[in-house]
């Protein structure tokens, strides 16, 4: 995952003015390994900058995503953002629904798609959601505690 400095460097290399707000956004994403919704980011930013509009925050998220420093994923409960992973070649993600840890995978299914003739593919998305090893472990621990309790009752 990109660090705060890498995010700032990438933004300034691509000609984006590094305002104090963008620095704060870079730090927020550089230090947060999970995904954040635009609302999460807005609420965080409002604590630091009074009178900030949701549109301004959202526009900055869009710009950062277009520059490739943020990755965007659509979850069941909406769109969320996190710092891009450091992989610089084309890849996809396996995402843990519990801890939101993201594992880059090299498999790309786009060649397997039976696109209609003359259909020009511009972009594609492929994400796999599930539970990582740690989260499967903690889920089964909870189940065991639950069944132990019912067993005793
Ligand atoms: Zn990635
Ligand atoms: Zn997990
Ligand atoms: Zn792909």
Automatic annotation (TrEMBL):
InterPro entries: FUR, Fur_C, WH-like_DNA-bd_sf, WH_DNA-bd_sf. Its cofactor is Zn(2+); Mn(2+); Fe(2+). GO terms for biological process: negative regulation of DNA-templated transcription; regulation of secondary metabolite biosynthetic process. Zn(2+) binds at residues 96, 99, 132, 135. Belongs to the Fur family. PANTHER family: FERRIC UPTAKE REGULATION PROTEIN, ZINC UPTAKE REGULATION PROTEIN. This is Transcriptional repressor. The lineage of its organism: Bacteria, Bacillati, Bacillota, Bacilli, Bacillales.
């Amino acid at each position: 995952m990109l660090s705060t400095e890498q995010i700032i460097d990438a933004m300034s290399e691509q000609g984006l003015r590094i305002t104090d707000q963008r620095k704060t956004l870079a730090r927020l994403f550089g230090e947060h390994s999970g995904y954040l919704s635009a609302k999460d980011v807005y609420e965080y930013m409002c604590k630091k900058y009074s009178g900030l509009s949701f549109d301004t925050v959202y526009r900055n998220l869009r710009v950062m995503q277009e520059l490739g420093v943020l990755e965007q994923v659509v979850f069941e409960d909406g769109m969320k953002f996190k710092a891009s992973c450091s992989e610089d070649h084309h890849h996809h993600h396996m995402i843990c629904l519990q801890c939101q840890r993201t594992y880059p995978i090299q498999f790309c299914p786009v060649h397997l798609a039976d696109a209609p003739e003359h259909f020009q593919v511009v972009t594609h998305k492929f994400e796999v959601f599930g539970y990582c090893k740690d989260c499967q472990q903690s889920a089964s621990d909870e189940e065991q505690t639950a069944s132990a309790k019912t067993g005793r009752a």
